[in-house]
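Quick start: what a row looks like.
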Amino acid sequence: MERKRGNQTVFFNNKPKIIGYYSIVGPKEGKGPLRNYFSEIEEKDDFFGQKTYEKAERVMIERALDGAIKSANVKYTDVHLFMAGDLLNQIISSSYAARSFDIPYVGVFGACSTMAESLALSACLVDGGHFDTIACATSSHFSTAERQFRFPLELGNQRPPTSQWTVTGSGADIVSIKGNGPRITCATFGKVTDYGINDVNNMGAAMAPAAMNTLLAHFKDANTSPRDYDLILSGDLGKLGSEILIDLMEDHGYKLGLNYKDCGQIIFKRNQNVLMGGSGCGCSATVFNSIIMKKLMTGELKKVLLMATGALLSTTSTQQGDTVPGIAHAVVIEGEKNE
């Protein structure tokens, strides 16, 4: 079978499998509607036993990777590569977590799209025969992201209506040519898209155009439409971004129906004071590695299009008054029972 179709989509002949997964979240996320699906919830506080929030985020990745490896029922020596990224300067949460594991490491950055990005890259490497088993992980923490990209937490700034709540959580997957589990059948790599949004408190509007471009490319390359999937899951557009995406897709002749959901809208309850919903690398990572993976394992979901979105801003670009480019990567995951 031809691996590459169109300009942006790769199809996998060997269909790498997700043989293990794990999700860990903080107290606020643990009070949300997905409470019974997360692998682990830190009930007490979001420091995770550490002295700083940044060290807490590192610990989340360590625990997520450890849990995913145990879930896959493999040894650390069976994992040939660790691929991870996060939001903190120079992806320090992932890189510092990698010190705890004797596994070759590749750091990646796609902002909040990192879960889908790492799954897509891992599937390419496994499908090509370069590695048998790869671990993917990402994380975010409300307190680290807020004080890096917006304001010091101590100021207690009022949040504008368009803002989202960065998810405190981490998710990890074990992608392998061996074993059993849902299969990654193809991946669509997105293009950087910028519609001129410069409001750091409106990430949904900044990322929605990138999500549209990736969806359009995927449907064209794969010769599919929204109705061909049990679930189309965007990463963290939130309420506003999701509404924008739906309108943009309709302008291009695609109607996203009841099978379209956004991780940022389902991870929290409406009464949790999160305004437009969840965001951050941990948003799609924890939602996918909880309720979605469990439904793929049981056969309740047979074909899922996971598209995580990322806002590619930095503190430097914000200080210079630059706009916020977006990116979106997508992977198709099919359950074992979808033969």
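That is the whole record. The chain has a mean pLDDT of 94. The first helix runs from residue 27 to 30.
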